[in-house]
Amino acid sequence: MLQTATPLYDDLIPGGSHWSLIIRRGHVLRLIDETGGASLGMLLYNPENTLERYNMPDTLKNQHTFHLTRGHVLFSDMGRVFASITRDDLGWHDTVSGTSNADLVARRWGEKTYQQAHNHYHRNGLTSFLNELAKFGLGKKDLTANLNWFSKVQTDDDGNMRFVPEHSSAGAVVDLRFEMDTLVVMHTCPHPLDTATEYPRRPVRYQLFTAASVSDADPCKISSPEATRAFANNALYHLMQ
Amino acid sequence: MIKPSSLQPEAAAFRETVPAGEYFLKVVKAGQSVRILDLEGNQAADTLFYNASNPSERYSAVDTIREQGNVYLTAGSRLLSSEGNLMLEITADTCGRHDTLGGACAAESNTTRYALEKKCMHSCRDSWLVAVTEHEELGMSKRDITHNINFFMNVPVTAEGGLTFADGISDAGKYVELKAAMDVLVMISNCPQLNNPCNAYNPTPIEVLVWE
After folding, report:
1. Chain A residues closer than 8 Å to B103 by CB
2. What is the residue extent of each domain of chain B?
3. What ipTM goes with this model?
4. Interface test with chain A among B1, B50, B51, B62, by most A beta carbons within 10 Å
5. The model's pTM
6. 3-state secondary structure at position B47
């Protein structure tokens, strides 16, 4: 799935931090859990029209799944594919638990301000997303259900949710191949259901690669009739660009 | 959880029938109760809630299910906002389960879910987009269309991580009732979906009742 073996770019997001970048179509974003137990919160937007954004319900119902793994694609709310999951070492990523907020972090792990702890202060997912979104003129109204890479939340027959601790191990990799230009907003604040007793501060490495070209027999493209139709919508979109 | 209401329809301060494919928009004040009634059965009421004085605070599906530790909604469910505040509580439910993971139909998602040529068929997002554009005073737009509740829909999740759209568990006369904890703007799309076997391809009217 990668055209080049050497990353075009390699960077580390420290635990409890946030970052964002625009990734162009035809590139792979590799996420690597540096130390194990990571969680990476993510939101996706079309930089040409930020009213188009990642849609959790469409992603789940189009693929009849509650969890995300290799072979799945990430749907926008406009019937298109932002990215395909072309590699996954874990088999399950969460997109239904939302993100932490200041109250949740204080309740779970205590408050730690910048005054007290400098860059080891307790940041939360919601403020982190808003911080990055503001750089692109976006705000509260643009928040939507996010992805939580490296995290597993399972349900029982009655719908009760359970966070699976230590789901991800050091070195675990997820590759996202971008099928259209995408604004990617990320944070490494703890998963809101993380059961760790101390504020989990787990860094995530990300790398960018050039993607190999996508054939009509691509596993993500033919993973479901729904995905195939979404790729057709992408093709129409790019026809006019 | 099946929990009938003691409120009588004759005593309601407000009643309105909403045909399939239409929107419903109304402010329900803190302390008032609102009932959504499935008049003919197996209808989906795609519902969004906003803080009436600040619509950037809105119902959050993910915060609600996470904080209650369960993916389904029923009597006793507390509906939380994007800022973690209690918006409404489900006080009565004769259906037993409602979905908040499946989202709403839109022209574009109909292309992926059903067929590319379904794109011009009427959808819930159409209804909401008409609602916000016909009510400019609200200052709302597509930015405000977010993840909703599908009252009367059954979307089972499995331990293995599967998700299915099962036959409806609603029936004619079943209802869900909510008590508002803040002044909320209620925005419903009474679903016009003609491609989903859940409603036997027959979208039907609902009724909305409000008690002081």
Report:
1. 55-58, 61
2. 13-211
3. 0.96
4. B62
5. 0.97
6. strand
